[in-house]
Amino acid sequence: MLFRQLEYFVALARERHFARAAAACYVSQPALSEAIRKLERELGVPLVRRGHAFEGLTPEGERLVLWARRILADRDALEQEVLALQTGLTGALRIGVIPAASGTVALLTDPFCAAHPLVRVRIETSLRSRDIVERIRRFELDAGIVYGHGVEFDGLARTPLYEERHVLLAGTDLLAGRAESITWTEALEMPMCLLHKGMRGRQIIDDALATRGLVATPQLETDSVLALLAHVRTGRWACVVPQPWLHTVPAPAGVRVLALDDPAVTARIVLVTQDADPGSVLARALTATARTAGIDDTLTRGSA
């Protein structure tokens, strides 16, 4: 059995198409197909359901592709460990980030890159927590920045990064006479634009409101942070966003930021990696950076 055979098998499981898998591995389709057939003969079980085209993995294939991914990940981790001993950390680190953390991820990756200048970092945003966790389990990502609840984390390590608190943004005219905070009951009387239902950031808001018997029925919903801010900028709308977003994208001119109370809406953001020993040297280094970067303190000072 060769690593190359496992690479072809994992690529086919990922692409679900022989030609695309072959292109991803930079080989011809016949070469990829023959290597997988040879792997099947060596293992003594069928891995792929074949017809006129790829029809999926067999039950045996679905089980064994997990082992193939783990073996390849351990091989990569071994190579990275050797290189780290010889020349310091090198290689590529793949991080998945939920949209809510796309504006704060630099507080982690900047000090990491400064400490490890030979490491290349690839960040994928616009991913849901559940998708990031699944891709970490499939060894397609090395780490993820996700919400710390609402997802199954068995077999994964979590490192707290910061707590986000939601705040109200609205034009000064809408908030005339208001102090520095506002209740949700008062906020929901305003012309409101919020994230779409189904997005995790919106679900956090709806769940918190449900504890007080309140329901948000915004006239306008969007999946874009910029769209929320653009509407608030007109002076005729209010929106609710996590305070850390304003670390990167300040509130528009003429817009006030008020704390939301009764209930306060908060969520914990965490770094997730494989819980393996020794595991990936790059993931361990990222975790070490997360523990010393002081992200929560930075965001707290910025909101003061």
Descriptive account of the structure:
The chain is of the alpha/beta class. 43% of the residues lie in helices and 24% in strands. The chain is built from 12 helices and 12 strands. Strands 3, 4, 5, 6, 7, 8, 9, 10, 11 and 12 form a 10-stranded mixed beta sheet that branches. A two-stranded antiparallel sheet has the order 1-2. Helix 5 (106-115) links the parallel strand 3 (91-97) and strand 4. The longest helix is centred in the N-terminal third of the chain and has 29 residues, at 59-87.
Summarize the structure.
With 304 residues, the protein is an alpha/beta fold. Helix content is 43%, strand content 24%. The protein has twelve helices and twelve strands.
Poorly predicted parts = none
String of helices and strands: HHHEEHEHEHEEEHEHEHEHEEHH
Structural class: alpha/beta
From the alpha carbons, calculate the radius of gyration and give it in angstroms. Answer: 24 Å
**Looking at the structure, what is the overall shape?**
elongated
Share in β-strands = 15-25%
Largest sheet: 10 strands, mixed
Instruction: Compute the separation of the termini in Å.
Output: 59 Å
Average residue-wise pLDDT: 90
Strand tally, please?
12
SS element count, helices? 12
Helix content: 40-55%
